[in-house]
Model the fold of this input.
Amino acid sequence: MYYIIDILGLISFAISGALVAFNKRMDVFGVLIIAFVTSVGGGTLTDLLIGNTPVGWMKNIIYVYIILGSAVFAIIFRSKINYLRTSLFLFDTIGIGLYTLLGIEKGLNANLHPLICIALGTMTASFGGVIRDILCNEIPIIFRKEVYATACILGGITFFALRKFNVPESIILIVSGAVVIVVRLLAVKFKIALPNIYSKDT
Amino acid sequence: MYYIIDILGLISFAISGALVAFNKRMDVFGVLIIAFVTSVGGGTLTDLLIGNTPVGWMKNIIYVYIILGSAVFAIIFRSKINYLRTSLFLFDTIGIGLYTLLGIEKGLNANLHPLICIALGTMTASFGGVIRDILCNEIPIIFRKEVYATACILGGITFFALRKFNVPESIILIVSGAVVIVVRLLAVKFKIALPNIYSKDT
Amino acid sequence: MYYIIDILGLISFAISGALVAFNKRMDVFGVLIIAFVTSVGGGTLTDLLIGNTPVGWMKNIIYVYIILGSAVFAIIFRSKINYLRTSLFLFDTIGIGLYTLLGIEKGLNANLHPLICIALGTMTASFGGVIRDILCNEIPIIFRKEVYATACILGGITFFALRKFNVPESIILIVSGAVVIVVRLLAVKFKIALPNIYSKDT
Done:
């Protein structure tokens, strides 16, 4: 189950990367690279910072196949992929939820402070998108519009709050993953954004 | 003393990051991230290149509190912070001086060549600003206008020159840190820049 | 022989980095940094991902001298360097061929899957240019125009194909390095590009 969602996350991040690369009119190779980077970027950064090398995807060749397959799929069906946007957004959000948990667990395994673990979870979930935007020469969208990192952080706080009360591991994972997903879905549905700090000084 | 200046460096880098993020009209989360990255970016790169993982700030949760606190302070007082620019510039310059020394020491601990140590010192002092500018989608200012890295390099050369003559450690640190600070202050005061190499071929 | 081509690769990457920095009208320091990053960027990323730290150039001070010397040379003779563009392009292409092989060997030494090794070879050959373009605030050219990575990938495939048939190591190196070089030269000469995937949906 865990593994299946992980794969779904990889797929949806790869496809979302490919879509951005299309908009920049990159060639086939560029699309593959951007898809790849969007999928594995967050986990790679986390692995590097912890010192967990060679980094994850190098040890799981199946990841590489899945990402390349998803990108090729996106290239072939690029004209129809707009119909899939809603399900993509859902996959993407599920992926974010799971990647947050993966990052937190990596931090716990390295005996790091809860705050650092939450930061790692947020990085794992969001850095792929950040590096995608840097490579495409845009201000990373995470810094401007989306309730993205906030969802990860709330999920991470939930994780450690439940942990204090000795809630069983499996329930912690399900609940805190769900918090990430629900916060993001609600935020997007109701167009909730962080408070605007520029109102007075515009 | 050493520790106090380190903290001052962290604070001023965090605030300088927040100021740049304000100019880009980022949301609260973006401001926090940019402040954080500006503060720890240089040290993190150095730690990664040396293989000193988990990287420094992960092992010192107090750093995280200080950075987030400074960024929140900058957000709250953003309309008044312009009055502080002069003292900020001073903190920033002191921070650069100290970060240069920290980077050199990391290199020495890893038994690296003096030139590499100077490069690490310069990176530690300047990479936070570079990554801040990349994330904000600008050509890093270090590559265009400021006598910034040059001050670090001169400080590093002073460090190793004094070391050749068996000057005591504490005096080396004070003198070479002071070189970085004085060079930068004088350069900014008298608008000294590196020789322009484009005069003939414009 | 191997070592000589390595040095030639370093030199030509350093000069190509310096040329791009000139176009952006960076100061002397910026030119040195960009030259340095273009030369060692690919190998550094590969070393980081594998966990091979301190990274390569830190252990070979001679590399640093060569890169800085090349950049200074480029600065002094910048008005005449346009005459050298053809030979530079040749050096650059040879460099790419060799860096591809270096990256593959690093992957093999870390017991990684052939596909990962090919990815590492491609990274080693191309990431220096990518980071150069990011620092200069451009969409990395590799994602848009050049048959660059494709040449590395074909060379990598040749490497592992020959290896399956127990061809001697030295012949594998020469043939697969030659594939990279010839593919790139032919592609540039005959303006071959990857198939355009945007024709229908423009």
